[in-house]
Amino acid sequence: MKTVERILIKIIVIQFVSMLLSQFVFHKFEIFPELHQLARYEGVSEDNFSEILETFNGR
Question: Residue ranges of the domains in the chain?
């Protein structure tokens, strides 16, 4: 059972590292420009903290 757990942990770590690297490559080098436009459209890349604070302070 320990060998199965070790294999699963290795798979999870490899998958996590590959996900981080692919996200870095996509966003930093703009290989997929539509992804950058989509992130801007959804407001993920912008700081919207002031609007949130204004909403909470208004209550």
Answer: 2-58
